[in-house]
Amino acid sequence: MSDSTDSTLPDDDVVVFRDAPFRRRRGHRRAAPAANPDGAALNPFVGPPAQGPQPAQAQGHFPAGPFFNAHPYAQVPFYMNPYYQFAQAPMGYPYHLPAPAAAAAHGPQPALPAVPLAPAPHAGAPPPVAGAANPFLPAIPPPAAGANNPFAQGPAPPPAGAPIPPQPHPHPPKPPTLTSKFSGESNVKWEEFELLFTNDRLYGQWSDQLAKTTLLRHLSGVALTTYASADATVQNGTCNDVLNFLRDIFQSPTSVEHYEAELNSMRQLPSETPQAFEVRVRNLVAKAYPGTFSHTLDSIGKRLFLDRLRDSHLAHEVRKFTPRDLHEARTQVELFSALASNSATPSSANNTPRSDPPISRLLADHKTDMSRLQRNHERQVTEICNKVQHMLSSPPNVPPQQQAPVQAAVPPNITNPTNPLRPSRGLPPGYRCHICNSPEHLKALCPHRPGVSPSGNPSRLT
Q: What's the CATH class of domain 256-341?
């Protein structure tokens, strides 16, 4: 489809867009009206035609016409003019109605006043200022003096020879505060304190004087007394000089033999948690075996951790699960401890909680009791055997002599004994009565025993 052209139409004629803003409809060009005296009335965005010669910038992109003369947007290209699509018809009117018909249907529209154009700036011209020459720039107030206005002028300098007023001296910054202090006697070790101090010093980028002041502010007790007794070269030196001096005195020994001795004597403290004990074991193993592979250090630490626990039964139960490393061993110890504490019987309000001993401890106590009973029984049997052997090997006892002569009664001849303790065939060889030295009876059947009458009947006490 070819565009319909008209030689009478100028090339810069305005085209109304129907489909979308700033889009030319192909194959169509609207014929410009020959004369539109109502153009100013039909388009509320366009003023009346300007009278007289027009400035050059008004004719840069659009010709002088009844719709764009003396309008501010006549100075910009057509694709930057927001009112370009409303040039031939008022806003809101249907595009298929011609402008005269729309005017007849809706009546004449009020016209906008003409806006004078500002002259185009040329090279080397000063920037435009607010005023009658440029009505589009807002009025700019003069800059006020102050710190927020860098272009404003400050107060005038004092005249030559005038006395200079005293200036206030800025206060020095307050030394920073560390998380801990070092006294040389507390639980805070020198290695821990030096690490915290060095970290804060590097982060804050302290000067040497500020670092030295902060270090001395956090010394107390023996550490501060030791610094006071230092040489003048140390006290007047830098912060590193003070650190080196205190490090040589308060730092723990770093020899491998020292850490190995600590490992040999290390045990879990009563108030030490498994986590704290794991950290202590890990640090000592790393110091005692420097340069060793990490998996080897972990294996050594796991073995020492389980060997030096307070509860040997708990360590034995953890070994059954074969933990892979030190951390897993500590985790299982905490798990078993929590299970043991949760499975204990709840205590009443008046009774104290009773802790049941483990089964292994009960078995050990039972075994100990059985061993003790067996030893006592063997000792008693041995004593009885020794007494019997002594009785068999020792001569019979002679009865003590009595002061009054006692007539010995002839024992009756008992042919049919009724006492089962008296044998019918006589006593075995070597057995005799300890009272009368007779081989016929024992001491319990002796008629001459005290308290028995000569007739053989027990005597009564009178």
A: mainly alpha
